[in-house]
Write a structure and sequence with these properties.
- The chain is of the alpha+beta class.
- The protein has 2 domains: 30 residues; 105 residues, Alpha-Beta Plaits (2-Layer Sandwich), CATH 3.30.70.3270.
- 28% of the residues lie in helices and 20% in strands.
- The protein binds iron/sulfur cluster (2 copies).
């Protein structure tokens, strides 16, 4: 009886296994040949915090208040506030640097910004073997924002 039971279990598992293989042969695959094929990113995907540009003026929304820098747990944002000739502080950043190699994509900087100047972009192809390539300045962050499909709000509507 034990032998018959083992034969039955073997035949059953072979049938189940082959039926799954047969079913998958006629199912559209969900895998893609990346990087030749690029599946669309889900809306709201986060990869890197980037600087938003005011589409009317072409200037950054950032006023260099430093809240994002202070709210970043791994300290990957560095801001240098602009100064005028007399040394008075100006309301834009002279330098804004983000070290993506330290970023944990937590979104805290975006939430801390009271001026809607930061946004998480959905650009994922930023990897590099050189850490130096993962340090972005304000121009680079603004350029990534322009090409990303982040959840943008304009005239009260999400684009
Ligand atoms: S997403 Fe998080 S870790 Fe990355 S820069 Fe913003 S606060 Fe820092
Ligand atoms: S919190 Fe916003 S406005 Fe303030 S420095 Fe950061 S990005 Fe600029």
């Amino acid at each position: 009886m034990a032998l018959l039971g083992r034969i039955w279990n073997t035949a059953k598992s072979m049938f189940v296994g082959h039926s799954i293989t047969l079913r998958e042969m006629f199912t559209t695959p969900i895998t893609v040949f990346y990087p030749e094929e690029k599946p669309p990113m889900e809306r709201g995907s986060r990869s890197v915090p980037v600087l938003k540009v005011n589409e009317g003026t072409g200037l950054l929304n950032c006023v260099s208040c430093g809240l994002c820098e202070r709210s970043c747990p791994p300290s990957c944002i560095k801001i240098e506030q602009a100064l005028d000739a007399k040394g008075d502080r100006q309301s834009w950043p002279e330098a804004f640097e983000l070290n993506l190699s330290h970023c944990m994509v937590c979104n805290l900087c975006v939430e801390a910004c009271p001026f809607d100047a930061l946004e998480m972009a959905d650009v994922v192809e930023l990897c590099s073997y050189q850490v130096q390539d993962l340090i972005f300045d304000k121009q680079q962050l603004a350029e990534i924002w322009k090409t990303s499909r982040s959840l943008r709000v304009a005239n009260g509507e999400r684009l």
